[in-house]
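Sequence in, structure out. Go.
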Amino acid sequence: MRAFRYLYRVPLLAWHILLHLPLTLLLIAIGNGGPLSHGIVRWWAGGLLRVFGMRVRREGTPLPGGTMFVANHVSWIDIMALHSQHMMGFIAKSEIRRWPVVGWVTTHAETIFLQRGNGDSLGQVMAEMAQRLRAGRAVAAFPEGGTRDGRELGAFHARIFTAAVDAGAPVQPVALCYGARCEAQAIVAFAPREHFVGNFIRLLGEPARPVRVCFMPPILPGECEGRRAIAQAARDRVAQAMAAA
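Output:
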């Protein structure tokens, strides 16, 4: 069945990249960061997920305006799942710029790139996040700090929440569940020593499965005392949604 899935998905992927991607990048440029740009990013991300056999179901409602969205991190496809539901400027490692397909889209989708291990870069990213939140623009981050094996939810690092505290912005946790009951987290996650291209090709041959994007109740300014309390509350709400599945 994997060979059969490659047989019809590879042409669909080629169509989505060679035809839809140039159109998407053109409309992003024309839209200049407005509703047209945001809408076309959601459309393209949703189309890529369908090519991979992933059927997205949204639960809850994303807050409008300057909100920090934080989610559990499983694989590169998390960005596509979130972008398919709401436009948000991601904090992503700078290496993603060099990734085929995903790198092209994220570069044009308001992504803030972080050079890992560079303290100056982190400070600049925090300042940019706070500025966007004050301007009423959404940002997103993966507080675990990186992908894991999909078998457990890691700790949420408090420092990433500094921008929301400084800007007085709400934080909305989002749980990403692959499979009807989150049973496919470890399948979607990067295997040991597996790089982006290997994960991309492997997932292209995987069986069709549902993806739940659960927007949990937001943490409003003043609801928690300090960034550590916000980080713990956000993690608890993500864990609650995954356990409920």
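Check: The radius of gyration is 17 Å. The first helix runs from residue 2 to 31.
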